[in-house]
Amino acid sequence: MSEAATELPEAWLAPIDDFMAYLKHERQYSPHTLTQYSTQLRQAAHYFQPYSPHWLQVSAEQIRRYSMHLRAKQYNPRTINLKLSCIRSLYKFLKVKHIQHATIANPGEGIKGPKFQRPLPKNLDVDQMGQLLNIQEDDALALRDKAMMELMYSSGLRISELVNVNLGDIREGEIRVIGKGNKERVIPVGNKALDALSQWLIIREQMALPEEQAVFVSKRKQRISIRHVRERMKEWGIKQGVSTPIHPHKLRHSFASHLLESSGDLRAVQEMLGHTSLSATQVYTHVDFQHLAKVYDQAHPRSKKQNSDPN
Predict the structure, then answer these.
(1) Interatomic CA distance for residues 195 and 119, integer angstroms
(2) pLDDT at position 290, please?
(3) Could you say which residues form the signal peptide (predicted)?
(4) Residue 173 — left, alpha, or beta (φ > 0 → left; ψ -120 to 50 → alpha)?
């Protein structure tokens, strides 16, 4: 019988449900992330159930065997690490909340999944970004879309942060956003983004319902959706002749890469991106190194490319 067809006992389901409620209401996780956690933990519970009566009696050895089982099933390293991470997070929650017992060990602690190479974020170079944002059309939707893209590139917003920006969140060259974990941060907004926003806000009054507080609205006169933003940016990438597909996260990556390339201030970039850990931001140092390596190859007299000339 398949896992999907076998219902888990309450002893396995209750901790998962409690954890999901915590992530939803206290940590403000997105529906997509909640679904990911629930799916991974239910799959793990199906594996552990024949060997243990409930989560609190799963051993480190059983989790290690689960990792080996996933490898044998040829799951990719990223997926295995995600599954193990979800298990560790559940036990951290159980320990903090003291569910059923005052002290709970984390059997997943120290069990590492297979190593994998993190793909470097793909970003636009400065010329490509200029090409994308060089929008000459002046109809309402074009002005709105340009303002959205300018703001994302100017301030490194996540798409969820962009669509949730309200009229009172932008003032005096700064924007206030609520990021992951319901954490607030204030980020500078560049002059070009402010100019684009000013042009859009004049038109917005004709497109939004009187009580609507969202900065960016759709034709329905209500807050624009994440899906709609993705679709519009993809269309603009094609219309502007940019050679790589455009999606919102690429503008955030480009913001981080270009800022780090110019300033070298990793900590400042971390703050503006809203990363809780510096390690999440350090991936951009690899992007920056790629740029430096390219400059070196093209310019340094002792580089391999310079030395390839037979003369």
Answers:
(1) 35
(2) 52
(3) none
(4) left
Over residues 73-124, the pLDDT tens digits come to: 989 888 998 999 999 999 989 887 755 554 567 888 888 777 766 655 577 8
CA–CA gap between residue 230 and residue 227 (Å, rounded): 5
Separation CA 259–CA 284 (nearest Å)? 10
Question: What is 141-192 written as a DSSP string?
Answer: HHHHHHHHHHHHHHH---HHHHHT-BGGGEETTEEEEE-GGG-EEEEE--HH
- DSSP class of residue 197 equals H
Q: How many CB atoms lie within 10 A of CB 263?
A: 10
CA distances to 68, 82, 85, 187, 228 from 152, in Å? 42, 28, 30, 11, 15
Burial 33-45, CB ≥16 within 10 A → b, else e: ebeebbebbeebb
Q: What is the C-alpha separation between 171 and 164, in angstroms, rounded?
A: 16
Distance of CA 162 to the CA centre of its chain: 13
Write the CB contacts of 145 (distance below 8 Å, at least 6 apart in sequence).
135, 232, 233, 236
Token couple for 80: 């295995």
Q: Across residues 302-308, what is the average pLDDT?
A: 51
DSSP state of 213: -
Q: How far apart are CA 169 and CA 207, in angstroms?
A: 19
Label the pairing between strands 184-188 and 174-178. antiparallel
Residues 6+ positions from 289 with CB-CB distance below 8 Å: none
User: How far apart, in Å, do the first and last CA atoms of the chain sit?
Assistant: 71
Written as six digits, the tokens of 42 are 């239910």
DSSP 123-136: ---HHHHHHHH---
Token readout for 161 is 């942060």
44 band by pLDDT with thresholds 50, 70 and 90:
very high
Annotated catalytic sites, by residue? 158, 180, 249, 252, 275, 284
CA distance 283 to 91: 28
